[in-house]
User: Fold these one by one.
Assistant:
Number 1:
Amino acid sequence: MANTSTILMSDHRVSAIPSVECGESLFDLRKVPALALDHRQADDTGAYAHLRIGLVDRLLTAQALLPPGLRLLIVEGYRPVALQEHYFARCAARLRDANPAWTEEFVYVQASRSLAPLSVAPHVCGAAVDITLLNADTGEMDMGTPVNAGPEESDGACYTHAPGISPRIRANRDLLGRVMSTAGFVNYPTEWWHWSHGDKYWALVTGAHAAHYGPVEWSPS
C-alpha cells in the first residue's frame, strides 16, 4: 500500500497504473432517496448526480456506519471529460498568472493538488465522489473549509490532515474518513472531501494491479 502523504495526481506512479475497464454503468443517485444530494455543482444534464453503480452500495454502507442523525451529503460524482479539461486548464491559468516565474511543469504539478489531469481523473471515470456530512438538526457540518476550496484560498486547510484545524473539525473529518475508508474508498490527501474507488489513484493506494474504471462517456437519457 502506497504512502499518499505526498503523492499527487500528477505523479508518474498514478499514470503508470493500467485501466482494465469493467463495463459497469453509471447510476443516477437521484433514484436513491436514502442518499442526500446537494445541488451546488449541478449541471443541466444531471451528470454530477451519477456514479458507477458499484460505488452506490459502498456509499450506502458508509452512511449506515454514521451515528444516528448524520448522513452523507453528496456534492458531485461524475464529471464529463470536457468539464474536467476546462476546470484543470482554468486552475493552471490562475496559478500561472499569479506565479509567472513558475515553469509549466511546476504549474502542472501545483494544479494537480486541486484538479486531476485528465489522464488520471477519477471523476471522469464515475469513480470519485465529493462528499461531506449532514446533520439532520443543524445542516451541513463544519469541516474547516468549503468543498472545493483550493490550497491557496484555504491556506492549506483543505488538506485532509492539515495542521492547525480545531479538534471539532478534526473529529468531523476523522468520522468521514472512517466510514468512507471502511466502505472501500480512498481519499486524495489534498482534499478532505474527495473519495474514490476503482480508479488509478485508488489502485496505487491499495496496491491493486489495475484500475477497474476508465473514462466513460456521458449520455443523458
Number 2:
Amino acid sequence: MDELRAGLQDSDGAAPPDRERAGIQSVEVGFALLDVLAAAAGPLMLRDLAAAADMSAAKAHRYLVSFQRLGLVLQDAATTRYDLGPAALRLGLASLSRLDAVQMGRERLPALLEQVGHTLALAVWGNHGPTIVHWQESPLASPVNLRLGDVMPLLTSATGRCFAAHLTPGRALHMIEAMIQDELRRLQAIPHAQCREDLPTTMEQVQALFLEVRQRGMARVVDTLLPGVVGFCAPVFDSDRRMIIGVVALGSAATFDARWGGAVEAPLRAMAQRLSGDLGYTPQ
C-alpha cells in the first residue's frame, strides 16, 4: 500500500502532473452546448444546437436535460428551442461584477511590451477626456514625454481619436462637441495645417477621420501629437459594447513600425481583442 501511495506522488508529495490535469471529460463535452448557445443570436433547435456542438442530437439531448435541471438551459414549450437559463445569467453577471478591466490590462502589458519593444500605456475616459492611467516604458525605446494623468487631445492623438470615434453618437455630440471645436480652432491657426491630410480643420474632416478609425478598428497618428513620434491606440470594449480602455503604443518614428498589420499594430490589436473578449464583448 505504501508503494502504491508513493507511486501516486512525486518526490515533493504532489500528485503527478498527469493526475493534476485530469478532469471530467463529460463536463468539457457538455460545455460545448453552452458555448454554442452563448455565441448564438437567439434560441436554437435541438438539431442545430447539436450540429454546432459537433455531437448527435440524442447525445446533446441528454446533456440538455441535466442543464435544464440546473437552470443553465431553458426550453421554450411552444417552439421547443433551447436558450441559456437564469443560472447561466447569474454566473455571467457574477463574473462581470468581479472584473477589473484596467488591472487585467496592466497584467497583459509586460508580454505585449516584450513583443513590440515600445512604450505602452492604458487610457480611460476621465472627467476631462481620455486620460493616461498606466504607463510602461521600454528600456530599449526612445523616451516619450507623456506621463500618468495626462489628458490626450481628441484630434491629434491616437488615444483621443479612438475614444472620440467610439463614443455612442448621442453621447459623443453632448460630451465632446465643445472639445472638438476648441481643438479645431487651434489646428486652423497652424500654418499650412490644411495641407496635411492627417490634421482635420473642419467638422466634415473630423467625421471622416472618426469613420476611418471605426472602419480600421484602431487609431494611428504619425508626427501629429509629438514631433517624430508614432502612436497606435486599440479600443477595448466591455459586454455592453462600450469602449472602456485604450491600449496605446508609442515610439520614435525612426524605429517604430507604423504600418497597419505591422510588428506593432498586429500584436496590439490582438491583445485588445482578447481583453475585450475576456470582458464579455461579442462583436456584432
Number 3:
Amino acid sequence: MRLDDFDDSINVEDQRGQSFGGGFGGGGLPFWLLFTVWGWFGCGGVALVIAGFAAFGLLRNVGHEAGTQQAGFAPGGHSVAQSCNVNAYSHESCNALSSLDKTWKPVLTRMGVPFRAPKLVFYAREGESGCGEAQSAMGPFYCPSDQGIYLDTAFYDETAGKLGADGDFARVYVMAHEFGHHVQNLLGTSDKVRAAQVRSPSAANHLSVELELQADCYAGVWAALNADRIEPGDIQSGLKAAHQIGDDTLMKEAGRTPVEAAFTHGSAAQRMHWLKAGLDSGGNPEVCDTFADQ
C-alpha cells in the first residue's frame, strides 16, 4: 500500500531500551489481557501468559529470534523522526498512523464527534500502558485509558513466520484495526459494550466478538477511503491476515477443537467478512453495525 511519509504531527512515544519491573502491579492478571492474547495467539499464548505471571510476573523470550534482531533492544528515539526510523516496521507504522489520523478526523467530524488523535507507543518485549503491563506476547493492543496503540514491531516477524500473514497491507491492517478501537472509544461504543458485559457476563465473549469485528470493518473503511493507495495483492494480503488471526484458525493451530462460545475476536470467516464489508463500503462506517443482531 502506497502511503505518504509520516509528518511530525503524529503522537508517538518510545519505550524501547527502557527497563521495566516485572509483574502486573497490585492487581491480578488483567482479564482483558487474556482476551487479547487469545485473539492473536490462541490457547498457547494464554497458557504462556498465565505461566509467566505465576512464575515471574512477566514473560520473556517469546518468539524473538528474528524480531530481536530487527526491533531489538536498541534505544528508542527521542523524537518522532527518530522513533519512526528505528527500523522499517517503525517507519511503516508511523506512515499508517499518519494516514489513519488524516482519514478518520473528517469522518468523525461529519458525525459530530470531536476527534482526538491516539498515540502510538513503541516498546520492545515489555513496557507500560495505562491499562497495565505491556508484554510482547499480547500482540498489538489499544488501551482506552490513555488512548494508546501499543506495538512491539517484532510482532510482524511472528505473524509472517508463524501465521504466514505477510505483506505491508497485512501489517497496516493490524494498525488500522487497533485504530478502529480508538474510533469505538471516541464514539462511546467501547464503554457501552463493557457496561453490557458487566450486566450480562454470559454474553461477554459474544460482545467482545462484535466489538472486534467492528474494528475489522473500520479498518476496511479506512482502506476504502484510501483506495487510490491500494496496490495489486493488497486486498488478498489483508484478507489472508484476517483469516489467519480468526479464533477458529488459532485454536486449530494450537491443536484444539474450535469452540464458538470461547471466541473473543471472531472466526476467520467473520473477520474476513467484516474487513471486506468495510473495503466495499465506499468509506461509510455505518455499514459496520456488527451489533445489529443484538
